[in-house]
Amino acid sequence: MPRWPNLVRRRPAKSVSRKGSLGSNPSLGVHFQMLKKAALKLLKQNLGLKRGEMVIVVTDRKNCPVFKAVCEGVEILGGKLKTLKITNKRAHSSPIPEAKKLFINADAIVAITDKSISHSPETRLAKKEYKVRIISAVEVDKKLFLKGANASQKAIRKINKKLIKILNKHKNIKITSPAGTDIKITRGIKFKSDDGDSTKKGELNNFPYGEICTYDMKDVNGNLVIDFSSVCQSGAKIIIKNSRAVSWNKKAESIISYLKKSGGNSALKIAEFGIGTNPAHKRIIKKIIHDEKIYGSAHIAFGGVGKGKSLVHEDVIILNPTIIAGKKTIVRKGKIL
Predict the structure, then answer these.
(1) DSSP 3-state assignment of 250?
(2) Rounded to an integer, what distance in angstroms lies between the CA atom of residue 126 and that of residue 174?
(3) How far apart are CA 327 and CA 323, in angstroms?
(4) Which CATH number does the domain housing residue 70 bear?
(5) Domain range for 97
(6) Residue 124 sits in the same domain as residue 236
(7) Angle at 116 between CA 213 and CA 261, to 5 degrees
(8) What Cα–Cα distance (Å) separates residue 155 from each residue in 162, 210, 213?
(9) Any bridge partners for residue 83, and if so which?
(10) Tens digits of per-residue pLDDT, 177-204?
(11) What is the pTM (predicted TM-score) of this model?
């Protein structure tokens, strides 16, 4: 018989995973590699993550590739990863008691959620008392996460600095819009820049970023006509007196009902005023974290933030506003001057 060479059956190569990895995921896919690259940029540039720091990554989603990419990024950079899964059957910034112990013992928090944790009591405690660094990415899908990572932090910071310099000299602000908004605000605290920089202790920024905002207004009065909200139709009109919603039209009934159900009568109080400053965001895409950053837009929030104790925080968008600080026009028909 002829002699045949020995045949060696090759075993399939074992996949090698990084120590502490989350197990199988689509990490070999091109799109996931792009997400992971964006996550690494977020963690290094925006969060300033250092080796050995404890990072809590929060989500209220199932099988979220952005969440997985951020988790892998934390491990690659040598962070101590802990994950927290919470329910999405909650209002924006409502309490998350199960997070308190994790949050106050963390160096940093990254939230990839459908419902915001930015103004939740546990987040505010971690930020204010324990100086935890926080990034909140609400309703951010794969496309928006990649778009956010490509934003020019330098350009946004320059716009924000210019506007804040003017606004902080004036306590009285007037906002009008083509849809009919006509509101006068007496500012409370100074304006804050959301330019994506959470490298300093106790800083919280959204992702995508690009806005300036103020809280705890001393007085707000006038007519608010909403161009976009996730809980009511455009054209909803709310009359505001002494910083509270006092009457409204039929289109606004759904948001008033939502606010009362989620936070009681305290949720009818005006909590925040902000201006969008991200030049890459130009139109409504029905994701509030993006839409409040639309360049030259304005947004107002009801509920709790700052000293406000309401259990909900809900933003609404005003498009193409004209904004006057004192006697100086800083935005005209949606264009920042």
Answers:
(1) helix
(2) 34
(3) 10
(4) 3.40.1830.10
(5) 30-148
(6) no
(7) 100
(8) 11, 10, 17
(9) 57
(10) 999 999 999 987 889 999 999 999 999 9
(11) 0.82
